[in-house]
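ARCHIVE CARD
Drawer: 12
Card no.: 0347
Subject: one protein chain, sequence and derived structure
Cross-reference: see card 0346
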Amino acid sequence: MKVLIANLGSTSFKYRLFDLPATTDGAGEERELARGGVERIGAAESRVYATIGGDAAEPTVIETVQPVPDHAIALQAAIEQLTADGGPLDSVADVAAIGFKAVHGGRASGVVQVDDDVLLAMEEMAEVAPAHNPPYVRAMRQLAEKFPSVPLVAAFETGFHATIPDRNARYAVPTEWLEKHLVRRWGFHGASHRFVATRMMALMERRPLRVVQCHLGGSSSVCWTRDGESVGTSMGMSPQSGLPQNNRAGDLDPYALLHVAKATGRSFEDLLVELSTRAGLAGMSGTSGDMRDLEAAAANGNDAARVAVEVYVAAIRHWLGGGIVELGGLDAIAFTGGIGENAVGVRARILRGLEWAGVRMNPDANHLRKARLHSDTSKIAAWVIPAQEERMIASDALSLLAEAAQ
């Protein structure tokens, strides 16, 4: 059964088309028919790419550079790639389901079939996920109207973090804020952290297994897991929080907003837009929020870019340290995401000087994208886990539909 997975990031769009066994026991061949996406959405030039026949010996690779202003155009480009002559689909109606790596549903969480109530729940949280929920809701409505016979499934990022205990999930705000307005630390990147947690449980035999997971990319977060379950995470009420992001500030004292608003006469709404679109690594460096650009600029003597990278690394190490305390020790550190998998220098900076904690790097392994980073004498393991959360969401979508059919 063919399942299309759409993953809308803050400045990116990725999709994968899978052909999965129709049986829930997993028997049968599993294939990736196509993958593709768009990088640097909203920039003057965006990279639009696709690999048709992902599991084939000689897949067809398509790549263009063109302006892609928003996620709706990115989704349209993906459908055109998949249904073009020679593509794996005659129409979108060929798929059994379209799964979305959705971000914030508030009262809607976990893996659910999209209906009017789910869309309403996402709209209720649009103010705290402005870069994600509106484009997801638009895309879902467009597809529901154009292809009403195709089930849409949302796998919410918050679902994996439902196991976080109150001590790590609650803010010190009046209880009414939690009960009426859902103000709490929700956590995000759930599909990625769930996939990494599953892989770590398979890679390591130690139980209990205590892991600090670093999802590092255009949007980044740290998650603490014990035996594959989330017990704490850096992101809070919104994806704007936690670590510095590519163009989002991350954690910030709310009174800084009041101070700048009074000093400049600007509205809170205007300042929030700036914090979520022109801040973060890009705002600090004055160049780019893309780690590839930042590292190149820092190597060429750009001091602002160097400081931005250092602030990013320091924030990750802050949460790494917190995880060691919360978990009562540490068995492994895992890296995933575009930066986590590819930015060799960032990984080295995060792990530097941690011999006191039992981390000993294998200097010959850090240049690899898929690697065991630790040496044989290291007490703490360090792994690079390439992200594959889309395949997991595809399986979740079929399982949900199978349960609904019973």
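Annotation on reverse: The chain has a mean pLDDT of 92. Residues 2-161 form a domain with the Nucleotidyltransferase; domain 5 fold (CATH 3.30.420.40).
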